[in-house]
Amino acid sequence: MKGEGVSPREFLSARDALLRNGDFTGIYVIHNTTKDMNYVGQSVRVVGRVTQHFTGHGNGDVYADYKYGDDFTINVVSLYESGYESLDALERDAIRAYAAYDCGYNRTRGNGSYPSWFSVMPTRDSRLRS
Question: N or C terminus of the chain with fewer C-beta within 10 Å?
Fold first, then answer.
């Protein structure tokens, strides 16, 4: 990931200019520099999704820390420029690389993953089968 990122204020100020070129598919890394914690997410509309996190419509823990004064930086990676073919794989690798599940804000290891406490068990209830 290039650079040191931008602050939420810089990102939100540049939002309209970023959207003029069209939103894009990729991942984003939100770094709480106060607590040294990361949140990694994916979206087919990265600019819009990152905006949601800092306006109270994304990860509640990220927003709470932002609202109460923690400092953050934001980095984004376009799927197209990443070398990955799968958005899910890009996100999973970034979550692992940034330890966003083990000591960050992520509650799963990536899209299609389940939290460690969750187990999928077969059901005998026919109402729950398709």
Answer: C
Nearest to 62 by CA among 76, 51, 47, 46: 51
Q: What is the pLDDT along the chain (130 residues), one digit of tens a residue?
A: 445 899 999 999 999 998 998 999 999 999 999 999 999 999 999 999 999 999 999 999 999 999 999 999 999 999 999 999 999 999 999 999 999 999 999 999 998 655 554 444 444 544 444 4
DSSP-derived letter for residue 125 is -
62 C-beta neighbours (distance < 10 Å), count: 22
Q: Give CA 119 to chain center in angstroms.
A: 23
Give the pTM.
Answer: 0.83
